[in-house]
From TrEMBL:
Origin superkingdom: Bacteria
Entry EC no(s): 4.1.3.40
Annotated organism of origin: Pseudidiomarina marina
Protein name: Probable chorismate pyruvate-lyase
Residues annotated for substrate binding in this entry: 86, 124, 182
Localization per record: Cytoplasm
Length: 202
């Protein structure tokens, strides 16, 4: 993935006024593909799973700063309309597999046990799963059209217009909450399978 492409991306990818139809994962909202379901519902660390699928894993940080978050995000964090926003691309062998967006309150940023302000290009997921008191909330899923901000991001990265799937959960550690959303894009198994299914229907 060329650095020039990354430089053209405008952070944050997701704006406070943009909505996504997140819903608790159940058979009425999940995709038909059992393989995509397996990626969406896997309760373990996504970072660890991605590393098993490639030789080289890398985090490309798009940005991390305080800003306005969406109402559907704020409800998980105590209805605070402002929080730290972190958006990254998780890359396998140089290609983007996941767009990840995390939001957390200032109190989480200040919590020394979490050290969220010193993450840099380290994966947040692996950092959270290393916490001994980690609790993970229910998994929500969402479907993203080619016209959505994430669908547009996928195309900016050089991939065809297609539908994408993502998931999110609220993690709790050291008495703090961190909402993490992960959307499978680019060269990821779910995205490539969605493209294949889309081509078959065309």
């Amino acid at each position: 993935m060329k650095s020039a492409v990354l430089a053209q991306l405008e952070f944050p990818i997701i704006r406070a006024h943009q909505q996504a139809d997140w819903a608790l994962a159940n058979e009425t909202v999940l995709p038909d593909s059992s393989l995509i379901q397996a990626w969406l519902l896997d309760p373990d660390s996504l970072t660890a799973k991605l590393k098993r699928h490639c030789d080289s894993f890398e985090v490309k940080v798009l940005g991390q700063q305080s800003g306005s978050i969406r109402p559907d995000e704020a409800k998980w964090l105590g209805d605070d309309e402002h929080a730290t926003i972190r958006e990254v691309l998780l890359c396998c062998d140089g290609q983007p597999w996941v767009f990840a967006r995390s939001v957390f309150p200032q109190s989480a940023l200040d919590e020394q046990a979490l050290q969220l302000g010193q993450l840099g290009n380290k994966p947040l997921g692996a950092h959270l799963f290393a916490q001994s008191d980690l609790e993970r909330g229910a998994i929500e899923v969402a479907h993203f059209s080619p016209q959505s901000p994430i669908g547009q991001l996928n195309q900016q990265l050089g991939y065809p217009a297609q539908h994408l799937w993502g998931r999110r959960s609220c993690f709790k550690a050291a008495g703090q909450k961190v909402l993490v959303a992960e959307v499978f894009i680019g060269d990821s198994v779910p995205a490539k399978l969605m493209q294949l299914l889309q081509d078959e229907e065309a």
